[in-house]
Amino acid sequence: MQNKFLIASLLILSCCFSLIAQDKDSKKKQLPEEVLPEEVVIDSIIKTREPINPLSPAKAAFYSAILPGLGQAYNKKYWKIPIVYGAIGTGVYFYVTNNKEYNRYRDAYKSRLAGFTNDEFYLGANGEQLTTPRVTTEGLERAQKFFRKNKEISLLVTIGLYALNIIDANVDAHLLQYNVDENLSLAPHYKFDEFDASSSLGLTLNFKF
């Protein structure tokens, strides 16, 4: 009699456990997306993120090396293109201007050394020939040194701006592939103290998690 009671009790307990397990499975299937396991959420985030192209920075730098501003266009930073051409164009303008002035004074100096007195500095405002030149030979020599120095500086600045254009395109392409989190922000901070009428200015770093 006791054995029959024990067997019946075990059957009842097994049925209860089976019902509880089935109820748990049904509840698990009905869970909303926000309570899904962390692995599923992370996997969905990775799938929605744009794929990283390791060759993108090299392409942007190569395009800017071929044609200034082309790398910025590749990065879709079109507003930088006028800045690039304005900076490089300014350097080229000063180089051409200083080179032109240097050639003027150099040609006149060579003419003086050859014994001629018909260079442009022997001419007056109305084109008349002067007995005394407006610029002396020593002045021509000083002017050559001055404009040659400015020409070399202008060339170095232009080359530097050209290299900066390449570096900007490369770095910008790197930064575009970074995952910028909106929960991390840096903002200016200003506080006015009403007790002593003083104020403080600084930066506030906010991180939400």
In words, what does this structure look like?
This protein has 209 residues and is mainly alpha-helical. 62% of the residues lie in helices and 10% in strands. It has six helices and two strands. α3 packs antiparallel against α6 (137-176). It starts with a helix and ends with a strand.
What is the chain-wise order of helices and strands? HHHHHHEE
Please tell me the overall pLDDT.
77
Radius of gyration: 39 Å
- The percent range for helix content is 55-70%
Count of extended strands: 2
- What structural class do helix, strand and pairing data support? mainly alpha
Largest sheet: 2 strands, antiparallel
Strand order, largest beta sheet: 1-2
Principal-axis shape: elongated
Count of DSSP helices?
6
Nutshell version of this structure?
With 209 residues, the chain is mainly alpha-helical.
Layout of helices and strands:
Blueprint: H1 2-29, H2 38-48, H3 56-66, H4 70-74, H5 80-113, H6 137-176, E1 184-193, E2 198-207
Antiparallel strand pairs: 1-2
Helix pairs in contact: 3-6, 5-6
Keywords:
single chain, mainly alpha, 10% strand, 2 strands, disordered N terminus, 6 helices, two-stranded antiparallel ribbon, elongated, 209 residues
